[in-house]
Amino acid sequence: MGWVRRLILAELQWTFVKKQRIFRRMSSQVRLSLLPRARCMFDEPVQVKVAGLRSRQVVTLRARSTDEKGVVFSSSATVRADGSGRIDLERDPSLGGTYTGVEPMGLLWSMRSDTLHKRFQLYSSLNPYVVKFSVHEEGGGMLAEATNERLLIGDGVIRRPIREGNIRGVLFTPPGLGPFPAVLDLYILGGGFSEKKGALLATRGFVVLTVVAYGYDDLPKKIDEVHLDYFEEAIQFLRKQDKVGSKGVGVISISKTGDLALSMASYLQGVRAVVWINGCSANTLLPLYYKKSQILPALMLDLSQLIPTESGAFNIKKVLNDPGAEENEATLIPVERAEGRLLFAAAEDDLNWDSKAHVDMMVERLQRHGKDNFESVCYPGAGHCLEPPYGPYFPSAFHVVTGRVVLFGGEARSHAAAEVHLWKNIQEFFRTHLSCDATQTKAKL
C-alpha cells in the first residue's frame, strides 16, 4: 500500500504546484493603480483602481500606515470587480470592512488602530504620510500593492524654525516672488503643535507662521495666564516678511485657540480674517492679559460633569461652565469689536463642548450690535477635531486639559466630508479677505 500513498502524495504535491503557478500568474496580472500619481499632497485625493482580476471576483483592498509614534493604523474594504475584472473605488462600493458604500477615499479616513482611543500622530511637515495599499484574494493572499506618499510640504516651500524675540514656531514661505497673503496658525500647547496646516497652506500660496504659546522649544512648560502681547509680536513679525503682501493677517484656530483668535481680532490691530473652528464664545481655561492688565477672566471647567462611557472614554460636553450664565458674563469675548472678517465653523456632534451653541451666541451678539462681518457653517455628524482632509478619523483620544481619554464626537463618513468642504472653504475665505498689495511687496524686494 506504500506505493498508493506515494501516488496520492505526488498527486497532492502536483495539485499544489499547479495552484501556486496559477496564483503567481494571476497575481502578476493584477495591477493596483493610484491616480493621477502615487506621490501627492496630503490634502489631495487619489483614485484607487485595480485591473487584471477575474470577472466578478471579490477581493479585499487594504490600507496601512504607521504614525510618528510607531502606532499602526489600517483599513479594509471588500469589493466585487466588474465583468472585466476591474475595480474603481470612485464607482464600486465597499460591501464590508471599515467602511461601506461608494467612498473614493474611504480607505484613508476609515483607518484605525487596533488599540482604542488612538489619534494618528503626524506633527513634522518633513515626514511624508506613507500609506501602503494592497489587494488580497479570499484567503488572504496578496495580489498587488502600491505605496501612496502623501506630502505635507510642497516643492519649493521654505520651512524655517523661528526664534525671534519672544516668538517660537515655524515659518512656511511659498516659492516665487509673491506677494502672498499672510496667515497665523495658532497653537497654545507645544505638545499638540502640528506643522500640517501651516505647511499645506504655504503649499497653496500663503505665508504661514505656526506659533506656539508654551511647552515648545525654550518656552515655559506651564503657564497660568495668556498674554496677547505675545501674539501681537507674532503678527508684527509676520507682516514684516518680504513676501507678505496682505495689509493684515489671517488667523486659523481650533478648540481653545478659537477664543484666543477672537480676542486677537477684538483687541489687536492687523487681524483681517479669522477662521474659528469648534471654539468657544468666551475666554476659556486661562485668564487673558494685554499690556500687563487682565482683560478677560477665564471660563472654567466643572469636572464633576464628566460622564463615563462603556468604551472607557469620558463624555465632556457639559464640563465647560455655561458662558451664557450671568455669573460668567465677564468671560465673554467682545467680538463686536472685531473689524476683520470672521468665519465660524461648528461641528454639530462636537462632544468636546457645544460649538454650535457658541456660534449661535456670537451671531446673536454680532447682530445685536449691527455687525455683518461674519459667516458661519455647521456640519451635522462631524466631531470636534476638524483637520485638513484625508487623515484617519478618530472619535476619541487623550485630552490634555482634563487628563483623561475623552469622546470628540462625530460619525466617520460625515466627519470626513466636513473636512473636505471646510478645507476648501478656509482657503477661499482667506484669499477673498486677505488682499495683497503687489506694489508694496515688490518695493521690499
Low-confidence stretches: 21-26, 438-445
**The CATH fourth-level homologous superfamily of the largest domain:** Alpha/Beta hydrolase fold, catalytic domain
Helix share, percent: 10-25%
Number of alpha- plus pi-helical segments = 8
Structural class: alpha/beta
Overall morphology = globular
Q: Report the top-level CATH class of the largest domain.
A: Alpha Beta
Strand order within the widest sheet?
11-12-14-13-16-17-22-23
Task: Report the radius of gyration as a whole number of Å.
Answer: 26 Å
End-to-end CA span:
94 Å
Key features of this structure:
single chain, disordered C terminus, 8-stranded mixed β-sheet, Rossmann fold, Immunoglobulin-like, alpha/beta, 445 residues, 8 helices, 7-stranded mixed β-sheet
Layout of helices and strands:
Layout lengths: L1 H28 L1 E5 L3 E3 L5 E5 L6 E9 L5 E9 L6 E2 L7 E2 L8 H4 L2 E2 L15 E8 L5 E10 L6 E7 L2 E7 L6 E10 L6 H8 L3 E8 L11 E2 H12 L4 E11 L1 H12 L3 E7 L10 E3 L2 E4 L10 E2 L5 E2 L25 E7 L7 H14 L5 E6 L16 E4 L4 E4 L4 H22 L4 H7 L1
Parallel strand pairs: 2-10, 13-14, 13-16, 15-18, 16-17, 17-22, 22-23
Antiparallel strand pairs: 1-3, 3-6, 4-5, 4-9, 5-7, 5-8, 9-10, 11-12, 12-14, 18-19, 20-21, 24-25
